[in-house]
Amino acid sequence: MEKLFFEIKKNYAGYSKGQKRIADYITSHYDKAAFMTAAKLGEKTDVSESTVVRFAAELGFSKYANLQHELQNIVRNKLTSVERMAVTNDRLGSDDVITNVLERDIAMIKSTMDSVSHSDFNNAVAAIKNAKRIYIIGVRSAASLASFLAFYFNMVFEDVKLVSPSGSSEIFESIYHIGKGDVCIAISFPRYSNRTVSAVRFISSRGAKIISITDNELAPSAKYADYLLLARSDMASFGDSLVAPLSLINALIVASTRDLSEDAQKGFKELEQIWQDYKVYEDDEKK
Q1: How far is it, in rounded angstroms, from Cα 192 to Cα 202?
Q2: Number of domains the chain is built from
Q3: Which 3 state secondary structure label does DSSP give 132?
Q4: Which residue(s) pair with 162 in the sheet?
Q5: Range of the domain at 271
Q6: Where among 67, 89, 112 does a domain terminate?
């Protein structure tokens, strides 16, 4: 936030009148500007859409969408829960909520599909398959994603550890054995948890491979990643939509478990028998 606004302030004197109106609006109403198209922001500041696009370029962004994404990150990381709810209500207005939210989720999945690194994804899959131990970290809102991934990985891989501490010290007690040959999958989305960042920093110093699943290259955990998997998320009221991250994690599960070894296949057959014997699923109870 400080870097972007410093850049605007530093160059303010050299801006045209129209650019100054854009700069003033962004610095004063960044929570609203973050979700405006270039045309809408131009309309709000009485300049052309092309002037808005050029202004973004002067700030160092290759396209307006990148400036918009940066502003959205500021909103998601800086606003309180109450402020986030107010911004969401302003965005939605009187529109059909379910249609609006689902359409935004679809857009986030499409954006993720366009931006995710196939190279990092394939290398991450290879690292998972060859790992001695797999650690999965995700706290607060990311805990549900970590739990989902761990549930399926535990059926296939022999040593999977879901790190779900209740306190800041417990996270280190759960990971202090980690080292070379191990892989850590760290899941982190705004508002970023300090516990996750501290854990990833520690794991990096131990020589384990880190797969970071987060929302952008500037996220706190991204700089420690050996393989960076970006999934777009959107602000949905006081929380965030994590539909696209879940879709990416689902792809990671599919790719990592496609070619099951004979031992893994045998294990699944045994599991199926256990589930049937102990009536784990409702269909089994009807037999």
Answers
A1: 17
A2: 3
A3: coil
A4: 136
A5: 257-287
A6: 112
Q: What is the DSSP letter of 135?
A: E
User: Mean pLDDT across the stretch 124-135?
Assistant: 96
Listing DSSP states for 191-249 in one string gives SPPHHHHHHHHHHHHTT-EEEEEES-TTSTTGGG-SEEEE---EEETTEEE-HHHHHHH
Query: What CATH number is attached to the domain comprising 73?
Result: 1.10.10.10
CB 275 within 8 A of CB 284: yes
175-220 pLDDT tens trace: 989 999 999 999 998 878 888 999 999 999 999 999 999 988 878 8
Instruction: State the alpha helices, DSSP H only, in the chain.
Output: 2-11, 17-28, 30-33, 38-45, 49-58, 64-78, 81-92, 97-115, 118-130, 143-156, 168-175, 194-205, 243-256, 262-277, 282-285
Q: What is the pLDDT of residue 95?
A: 67
Q: How confident is the model at residue 87 (pLDDT cuts 50, 70, 90)?
A: low
User: Coil, strand, or helix at residue 287?
Assistant: coil
Q: What is the pLDDT of residues 208-258, one digit of tens each?
A: 999 999 988 878 899 999 999 999 887 555 457 799 999 999 999 999 988
What are the phi and psi torsion angles at 238 (to 5°)?
Answer: -80, -10
Q: Taking a C-beta distance cutoff of 8 angstroms, is the pair 232, 108 a contact?
A: yes
- For 281, the enclosing helix (H) or strand (E) is none
